[in-house]
Write a structure and sequence with these properties.
alpha/beta; inorganic pyrophosphatase (n-terminal core); Diaminopimelate Epimerase, Chain A, domain 1; five-stranded parallel β-sheet; globular; binds manganese (II) ion
Length: 324
C-alpha cells in the first residue's frame, strides 16, 4: 500500500474547473476527499457553464495547477477525468493524449464522479465515507438519467434531486465551493436544509407549474418533439416532456442562459423510457455540426442568436426524425 501511494505526487494546491452540474460538484467533492487525505487541497473553484468559449479555454491561465473534471480535455490540466466521448476539442489533443494515474477518460462510466472514486480507491487504497458513497450513487443516476420513470425524474422528494435542481436553477460560485467542501462532512439530507437551497427549491416549484402549462401550449409534437423555451424563464423541461409525451423518442429544446456571448443553447436528448430504435450519437452529432458536445444520449450546443439556435434545432429535428 505504501508503495502504491508514492506513485502519485499531488501538488500542494489546485484550481478546480468543473462542469456545472451534479456530476461536476460531486466529482469535486470526491476528488477533494482524496486530495486532502494526501495532504493536498483545492484553493480555487471555477465552474464551466453554458456559453463558455473555446478561445477562453485554450488560453486558460491559473496561479495553481489545474484540475478539470467532467469537462473538455485540457492539455495543461495536471489532473483530468472525464466520461464524455466528445471531450477532445482538438484532434491534436486527442492524438497526443496518454492516460495515466491522473488523466483518465472512460466513456462507459455513468459519471465522472464514479470514475474518480473507483480509480483513487484502488490506486490510493483509501475508501470513501458513507456521505460520499451516496453522492456517487446519485451522480451515476442523475448524470445518465437512470431514473426508474419520468415521474421519478421530476420528483423532488430525495435531497439529491433537490441539489440537482438547485444547480440547474442557480450559479452561486462561492456557495458551490462551500457545498463541495460539505459533501464529505454531511449527509445530503442535512445539506439541503440550508436556507439558500430551500429558497431556490420553493421558487422552482412555482416555475414547475408554469412550465407544465407552457409545454402543453407550445410543444411541436411527434416522435421528435420540439420546444423553444427561450422567451420564458422556465425550468428544464426535458423530463416533464417525457412524462407528458411518453411516446416521443427524442426531444429538442432551446433555452436562453443569461448574457454570455452565446446565450442560446439547443439541448438534445433521447427518451430514456422509450429509446429510439436507430439511436444517434447525440454528442457526436452536435460536436460535428455545431461545435457542441455531450454523450450518446444527450448533448448541447450554444449560439449567439435565437435565429441561429432555431435553424440548428430544425436541422437536428429533421435528422433525428430519420433515426427514430
Ligand atoms: Mn458527467
Amino acid at each position: 500500500m505504501q508503495q502504491k501511494k508514492s506513485k502519485i505526487n499531488f501538488s500542494k494546491n489546485y484550481s478546480y474547473y468543473y462542469h456545472h452540474d451534479f456530476d461536476g460538484i460531486a466529482s469535486g467533492a470526491v476528488l477533494l476527499y482524496f486530495l486532502k487525505s494526501c495532504g493536498s487541497n483545492i484553493k480555487k473553484f471555477k465552474f464551466m457553464g453554458h456559453g463558455f468559449s473555446f478561445e477562453e479555454w485554450k488560453s486558460l491561465k491559473e496561479k495553481y495547477p489545474i484540475i478539470v473534471t467532467d469537462f473538455w480535455y485540457h492539455p495543461r490540466a495536471e489532473i483530468w477525468f472525464d466520461h464524455h466521448k466528445s471531450t477532445f476539442k482538438k484532434k491534436e489533443w486527442e492524438n497526443n493524449f496518454k492516460k495515466d494515474n491522473l488523466h483518465l477518460l472512460d466513456a462507459d462510466s455513468d459519471s465522472t464522479c464514479g470514475l474518480i472514486a473507483k480509480h483513487f480507491e484502488k490506486i490510493l487504497g483509501i475508501k470513501l465515507n458513507k456521505n460520499l458513497k451516496a453522492l456517487v450513487k446519485w451522480a451515476d443516476i442523475i448524470d445518465r438519467a437512470k431514473f426508474k420513470s419520468a415521474s421519478q425524474a421530476v420528483d423532488l422528494n430525495h435531497p439529491a434531486m433537490q441539489i440537482n435542481v438547485f444547480l440547474e436553477e442557480s450559479n452561486f460560485g462561492s456557495f458551490e465551493a462551500f457545498l463541495i467542501n460539505e459533501f464529505a462532512e454531511k449527509s445530503l439530507k442535512q445539506i439541503v436544509r440550508h436556507p439558500k437551497i430551500k429558497k431556490v427549491i420553493r421558487a422552482y416549484k412555482l416555475k414547475f407549474d408554469k412550465t407544465v402549462n407552457f409545454i402543453k401550449e407550445n410543444i411541436v409534437e411527434g416522435k421528435v418533439v420540439f420546444l423553444d423555451t427561450s422567451p420564458k424563464d422556465l425550468i428544464d423541461p426535458r423530463f416533464l416532456i417525457y412524462k407528458l409525451y411518453p411516446s416521443c423518442r427524442y426531444n429538442v429544446f432551446i433555452s436562453k442562459h443569461g448574457h454570455s456571448e452565446r446565450p442560446f443553447a439547443i439541448h438534445v436528448g433521447s427518451n430514456p423510457w422509450n429509446r429510439p430504435l436507430r439511436h444517434v450519437n447525440i454528442g457526436e452529432l452536435l460536436k460535428r455540426d455545431f461545435f457542441g458536445g455531450g454523450h450518446i444520449f444527450a448533448g448541447a450546443a450554444n449560439f449567439k442568436t435565437r435565429n441561429q439556435a432555431i435553424n440548428a434545432a430544425h436541422k437536428v429535428v429533421e435528422y433525428l426524425n430519420k433515426h427514430v
